[in-house]
């Protein structure tokens, strides 16, 4: 039985929050550069130049890529042979988020109650935490900072099996076209197919954690990712002010579902696709 103290987890999460806010992942940076090479709109080229330059300044100066430093989502894979000591795991994660946001001078955007008394918690907690028990004695932590300009334009469609592949394509495109330029494109699009309504939404979030240059292992879903990316880039949404680089990638994750169902969830992320990963 291997042991980890919660203080180590808190320290790692704090650093991960700062890294995610400051350093655009290399795959996303390269996708932006590739989009700049193929962009057909002069205005779109100018916008992409500014986005790329902004990410370079943020990395060089340890500054947030965007003023909306998001709501923190944490995915945990906990080895069943791992013992966590010294306190509560959820409390340790939230302590790390608070530490990272305060020390990193990141904007605190979380309100404690959503409707009647929207008071800011002042440290961006609580985080949204998903846990999965796996084999082994390691702890894998993935942190993503989810801005709400794009989150607000995400959506779920509850299809029926008869809708099939074409119905899925239409559902995704409807959500993207309704979003238009509001999510600060070029976007990274996470699609969850299957499960229940909530599971599809979870799968769409997990899809965003996959690098933009890695396709789904299932060839049919990999082909669908390519088709959807091509369709989205033909909408003319472009990089905020029109063009041919509306999305950098479409990532799909899928799961088993009921014989009567075909849930489809789309989580849109802006070009500031911020995440960090550790294995302890």
TrEMBL record:
Keyword Glycoprotein: no
Keywords of the record: 4Fe-4S, Iron, Iron-sulfur, Lyase, Metal-binding
One Pfam family per UniProt: Fumerase
Enzyme class: lyase
Domain of life: Bacteria
InterPro entries referenced in this protein's UniProt entry, alphabetically: Class-I_Fumarase/Tartrate_DH, Fe-S_hydro-lyase_TtdA-typ_cat
GO molecular function list: 4 iron, 4 sulfur cluster binding; fumarate hydratase activity; metal ion binding
Annotated Fe-S hydro-lyase tartrate dehydratase alpha-type catalytic domain residues: 11-277
EC number: 4.2.1.2
Family of the protein in this entry: Belongs to the class-I fumarase family.
Annotated protein name in UniProt: Fumarate hydratase
Upper lineage: Bacteria, Bacillati, Bacillota, Negativicutes, Selenomonadales
